[in-house]
């Protein structure tokens, strides 16, 4: 009886959702204040129906459950708790089973399906299939989200994500074709520069791409950015507040981030004016940071997400587990570990912590919702262990942006780790210079010293380790002209390789 009641309730909620999505004004009702607990519980009800359907009709998931026995889902009244179900990831679920086995019904539909792939930056590219209904639902949320950020009115979207079969570039193009002017240039500075020059400052531009490319564009395009109304939307990796401020000083009007994963969804969570204001407050308020943040090092990126669409949990190791709740996905993902380190904070908890610090949400930003916060610390495996400390990529990016003379010269970086013949850990921080920078003009020793001083300020564990490291084993900074050395084969179309073995 309970199962039948839940299925009937979820079907009603899905019909109600379709009606609300017909227009932006009705869609606003999905985010009315005071519905925080309702959205949270709706997400769990929808997640449970996805689980039940997958258990019945997705061959891979049935086999997966047999191979990973777990206690059945529990209920608190009518609200299910899926935390007893096994955790899936790319290694234990995606790779062992065929793409058809992972789909509802055990097959890939013959029509209406788009095939895209992840970038393959961590190895072999992985193929993903997306149904017409899935793409339409994603498209509708992206359209609505863009208008919430920028306000009503036309815009000119320039898609600077990688073109071709890669997931983000493909889906951004499909999402915004009907609601904006759109040009898909890929990560090509001259093409974007020419586009803005040709169409002129009369348009409201939105340029989407990976953070390193957006910085390269702002640094090297022959444009007076202040003459244009340009919003940058980044994805694929995080961005420090120092880099955001750097881009704003260039004349960019607004910079927002989106959190997605090709395994899951293009836009799981997004930065808002409120989440950005909270992150900036964490930079200047040590009491707030101590109460709110779980992990040391550079500040996480703060996003907000809709818990009625995505149930996001934290594993015991602090990694994010995501369940896709919309009924439109071809291949269900239930407690899927994307191996990103993160922290979920519900709005009432955030209000309580702010109050303990003498703050209210409206003190940070007048315009805000009661959607939960997702603090994203980056890839869980994207750290370098060095003399008892862990150095994360956001730490390096923040130290880079804080070092005078580096931010305006450096295009990208990579870290090399190795051990010498005496088993001493070695660390090299390699910086790729912008094409216009003269290699011989650098004061390399001074820039290196300044960078490591900033890295010690960002990462207190590294500061303590630095004191113990013998001078001859201290990490080194190396500078390389554009597209030389370890950067000669870099490809702007995919995510950069930030950690490499010597």
Automatic annotation (TrEMBL):
Q: PANTHER family attached here?
A: BLR5969 PROTEIN
InterPro entries from the UniProt entry = ANL_N_sf (IPR042099)
Q: This protein is called what?
A: CoF synthetase
